[in-house]
Amino acid sequence: MAETNDGLFREPEMGLTGRPLRKIPTPASIDSHGPATVIAMCNQKGGVGKTTSTINMGAALAEYGRRVLLVDLDPQGALSAGLGIQHEDLDTTVYNLLVDRDATLEDALHHTAIDNLDVIPANIDLSAAEIQLVNEVGREQALARALRPVMKDYDYIIVDCQPSLGLLTVNALCCSDGVIIPMECTYFSLRGLALLHDTVDKVKDRLNFRLEVIGILVTLFDRRTNHSRQVMNRVVEVFGDRVFDTVITRTVRFPETTVAGEPITSWAPSSEGARQYRDLAAEVIERT
């Protein structure tokens, strides 16, 4: 309990997770950059706010002075489109970096309108990569090999995985230091977490011993419904401190930013969504 000015005690204010509300410290500024912490934003279920969270968390990290590279690893190219990149007809994308050893990362790299935020885009060409890589030696390490030249240039590299647990996602897990799992606040999403955790554990045991779950991010939370609160209670009960204190609530602003082609932190900087992603970025810095 917290003590008031009159010496009485009151119950602490509760956050959306059902835990006491915690003031997340503002990250300290840094004087140098790199080597990068690589994070896979991963969930085999679509529609959980994964790409939205990758874009906005990356932009918030950049606001805090961190150099950030976003990697679009989904053939749909939603991350690329969400940052205003006309990705359909690009000559060099992440696909070329995975399958062509002569492709250079500099040719694939795009600077965004946000300071400190770069992106490697994807388009439908990437859908052929799994078939082309399947017989390659070290096929799980193709993305790690492609990113190696810029590891020293960034503080965070965030990979937006496609909604599956195929070879592209395994590539992301193999090159990552940690995983952030966005999950929609529904029982259906909760059931899928067990399968994803099993995949993460297998990659950790066999291919990437440093891989850890950085946190579980609850998204699309509707504070008006009992269902959301019940699911949240269950998630916190099962996963404990792995659940981020920051919760992303359902808001109309996120679809609008997709159309605008920029993060909510710049499109609507004073909005609740922007504040939530700044809090999330601060938590990620705290945990990594």
Automatic annotation (TrEMBL):
Q: Return the annotated region ranges for Disordered.
A: 1-21
Give a Pfam family name. Answer: AAA_31
- Signal peptide positions on this chain: none
Q: Which domain of life is it from?
A: Bacteria
Q: Which InterPro entries match?
A: AAA_dom (IPR025669), DNA_Partitioning_ATPase (IPR050678), P-loop_NTPase (IPR027417)
What range(s) does the AAA domain occupy? Answer: 37-212
Q: What does this protein do?
A: May play a role in septum formation.
What is the similarity comment for this entry?
Belongs to the ParA family.
Record-given protein name: ATPases involved in chromosome partitioning
- What species is given as this protein's source? Corynebacterium variabile
